[in-house]
Design goal:
alpha+beta; six-stranded mixed β-sheet; 7 helices; Four Helix Bundle (Hemerythrin (Met), subunit A); 6 strands; 2 domains; 242 residues
């Protein structure tokens, strides 16, 4: 997906999030146990503030977070931060430098992609709280599967070794694409394309990306194969998405 498309999704899903949230700030968010909609909205506003600061400062802001005004209306804060984030994207190019936590990509383009997915998932959270869930755009959701697997999940896990991970391979398929996730004790490797696997997860793009993020139950996707491979994958995903 291109930069402009990511920004358009941030714009649309951010507005929808604010709209839904304004109707029930005290409601519980079933996909985020322990959070109310107020907590959810404040979290997203703070995330937006952080990305703006990373770009303005050209380094991660430290200390973070600052002391926000205690009496600030969370929906007004979200709308304000959302507007300033969009202004930053509009005056930037995808290659404009920005400090990110992903060493290979230190650009505003990284944040446009990340914020498109952050906003879409939390918009879904708000809609679940309101009882009006709608799917994530299929192309965005497919890209979101790629993001979570390659950027959040793949890599060195030596600081959180998993003895039950013994090379199991799980195929994740949606949107006409398949990712192969290999789970070893101290690493996760992700490749794309058909291949031998021990387990599989597939379904509609929105359902698969929400399942990966722990926002959709097992009944929303089709799972098959080795139950232990699926269990270890889920455990890794929980840590990767904290």
């Amino acid at each position: 997906m291109d930069y402009g498309t990511y920004v358009a999704h941030v714009r649309g899903d951010g507005r929808r999030l604010a709209e839904v949230a304004s109707g029930g700030l005290a409601d519980d968010v079933p996909s985020c146990p322990g959070w109310t909609v107020r907590d959810l909205v404040s979290h997203v506003a703070e995330v937006y503030e952080h990305k703006i600061a990373c770009t303005l400062l050209q380094q991660a802001p430290d200390p973070w977070p600052p002391e926000w005004p205690a009496d600030r209306d969370p929906v007004e804060w979200l709308s304000d931060a959302h507007g300033r984030l969009l202004e930053m994207f509009d005056r930037s190019e995808p290659t404009t430098p920005s400090a990110t936590w992903w060493p290979p990509d230190q650009t505003v383009g990284f944040w446009a992609r990340r914020m498109a997915h952050e906003t879409a998932v939390h918009r879904a959270d708000a809609e679940l709280a309101a009882g009006t869930p709608t799917p994530i755009d299929a192309d965005l959701a497919t890209d979101g599967v790629d993001e979570i697997l390659h950027i959040m999940l793949a890599g060195d896990w030596s600081e959180a070794p998993e003895d039950a991970a013994k090379g199991q391979r799980t195929a994740v398929s949606t949107g006409g694409r398949t990712w192969n996730v290999e789970l070893s004790r101290e690493a996760v490797t992700v490749t794309e394309g058909d291949g031998a696997h021990d387990a599989a997860v597939e379904g509609d793009p929105s359902d698969v990306v929400l399942w990966l993020w722990g926002r959709a139950g097992d009944d929303r996707v089709t799972r098959s194969g080795d139950a232990e491979a699926l269990r270890v994958l889920r455990a890794r995903l929980v840590l990767a998405t904290q």
